[in-house]
Amino acid sequence: MCERKTVVERKTRETDIKAVLTIDGTGSSEIGTGIGFFDHMLEGFAKHGFFNLTLSCKGDLHVDCHHTIEDCGIVLGTAIKEALGSKEGIRRFGSCILPMDETLVLCAIDLSSRPWLVFEDVFTTEKIGDMDTEMVREFFYAVSYSTGMNLHFKVLTPGNNHHMAEAMFKAFGRALDEACSVDPRIQGILSTKGSL
């Protein structure tokens, strides 16, 4: 199997982003977006999904964090889509129920090429560190639509806002790792239609 790796760059008047993603990695990351909590979330995603991810972003943080986080979602989603290529042999579906202290989060994925996000807003604070909590949903929306991914989150046991967000990013990494994994039993594309 060829290396599943890609480089994606995106430059607008609001952000300048470069990402290097390796699907079959070790969980190493080098993240710099200017938003400390968001960097921490992306590091957790990479570590627990065993993705190698380098991502740098210079964004208009003097406005707010919206453009930076949304555009990073677009770039990461594009990188996932490009790195997966034809999707031949992959399991396509992945899920994870992940505990973090008092919280419990479910994440389920279908790499179907049909974007959809189901996300229940459970946050009770406006910010976690220097990141607006409403941007958690916006990030995953951008990822799901740029990848062409059906993505569901359910907070089964709510609690501390930091814990809920971190559990989401880690569960997303683990579920995506499963969906991207190659199964030797799968011939071609895992679909009765023959394509995704």
- Give the SSE string: EEEHEHEEEEEHEH
**What is the percent of helical residues?**
25-40%
Helix segment tally: 4
Major β-sheet profile: 4 strands, mixed
Strand content: 25-35%
Q: What's the end-to-end separation, in Å? A: 19 Å
Structural class per helix/strand content? Answer: alpha+beta
Strand order of the largest sheet: 1-2-4-3
Low-pLDDT stretches are none
Number of strands: 10
Give a verbal description of the structure.
The chain has helices at 36-49, 66-84, 134-147, 161-180, and strands at 5-11, 15-22, 29-32, 52-59, 93-100, 103-110, 116-118, 127-128, 131-132, 150-157. The chain is globular. It has a four-stranded mixed β-sheet, covered by helices on one side. Strands 5-6-10-7 form a four-stranded mixed β-sheet, with helices on one face. Strands 8-9 form a two-stranded antiparallel sheet. The protein has 196 residues and is α+β, with helices and mostly antiparallel strands.
Task: Note the topology.
Elements: E1 5-11, E2 15-22, E3 29-32, H1 36-49, E4 52-59, H2 66-84, E5 93-100, E6 103-110, E7 116-118, E8 127-128, E9 131-132, H3 134-147, E10 150-157, H4 161-180
Parallel strand pairs: 3-4, 7-10
Antiparallel strand pairs: 1-2, 2-4, 5-6, 6-10, 8-9
Helix pairs in contact: 1-4, 2-3
Summarize the structure.
This protein is an alpha+beta fold.
Sum up the structure in keywords.
196 residues; alpha+beta; 4-stranded mixed sheet
